Amino acid sequence: MLLHFLRRTLLTLITLFILSLISYHILMRDPLNAILAKPHFYSGYLNYMQHLFSGDLGISYLDGQPLLDQILAVFPATIELCIFALFLAMLLGLPLGFWGAFNAKHWLGKSIRFGSAFGISLPIFWIAPIALYFAASYQWEISAIGQYYPLYQIKTITGFASIDVWFGEHPYQLKIIQNVFQHLALPVLVLTIAPLMEIIQLTQNRAEKVLSENYVKVAETRGWSKVKIARIILLRNTLPPLIPQLTRTFTMLLAMCMLIENIFSWPGIGQWLINAVEQQDYNAISAGMMIIGLFIILINMFSGFLMFISDPFNRKGWYVR
Q1: What are the Cα distances from residue 252, in Å, to 50, 63, 191, 192?
Q2: Burial class (CB in 10 A: 0-12, 13-18, 19+), 183
Q3: What are the φ/ψ torsions at residue 55 (nearest 5 degrees)?
Q4: Which of 38, 202, 265, 301 could lock onto 145 through a cystine, CB 3.0 to 4.6 A?
Q5: Would the CA dihedral through 162, 167, 170, 171 be positive or negative?
């Protein structure tokens, strides 16, 4: 177990080192930073690492504000979209995956499998403007852009508008809550498509394999219903192996979220980074890439921890590797 832990730690440190080199290379694309880093690459890189360890990501060349404060202001909005989309995808994807597995030889199961494979291939940057167009054309209340109506004021506590909105004390508080979730609905529904299809596909493949085992056939002969089999057998044998896949799905979701933020005028880190690229603010690009990379590494570490505590076979494997 100790050797496996040390190996994982070493791989994480190597990944962080490579990430810092790429971030530093982007920073040096700015002529002023390149001049200040002279005469030696190593001295400039060590100085850059010292600032990173102290939490200093530098300042933006556009407004002179600390980049760490700007990232902390926009990153929660992106994570909010990703969490809602992943939760909705799991809420719908697991039952549909089980349903498709129970009816694998029926046209219904084959249709679910085909639909999930087709849905993954749909380009989200194409679906988002079409969905927004139809929502606006038919005057749906969810045809809204931004995080909430600009005239409303929500005090920032956690950075998640869906949480902060509950702590206000306005006479029209219910209207603000309704407005926040109306703005959240359309981008979340669009973002849910790809992870939903992937979760359905992964769940159906895993559930079909579990249903072919002898102990499931014994449960069926004892008169267990499909709901009981899904609740007692499928959930316990399907969810733990899906955790690493969910990490990859969340990473994919983060990238997709950054793509559609400009379409829905969502004030997240994706829109912030695109603005930085347009203005050639290399300080902001470097800092944003570093923070996103660190966040993905933390997600992978958290996934490994969940696998360790949820899967007894994986936990046993730590001691024999």
Answers
A1: 31, 31, 10, 11
A2: buried
A3: 85, 15
A4: 265
A5: positive
Q: Which position has the token pair 């760490």?
A: 68
Could you identify the residue written with the tokens 């700015």?
30
Structure pTM? Answer: 0.84
Name residue 66's beta-bridge partners. 59
Q: Using one digit for the tens of pLDDT, what is the confidence trace for 177-214?
A: 888 898 899 999 999 998 999 899 888 888 888 888 88
DSSP code per residue over 139-151: T-TT---SSS-TT
C-beta of residue 253 within 8 angstroms of C-beta of residue 268: no
Q: What is the pLDDT of residues 95-110, one digit of tens each?
A: 898 888 888 888 888 8
First to last CA, the chain: 7
Residue 184 near residue 146, CB atoms below 8 Å = no
Let me know how long the chain is.
Answer: 321
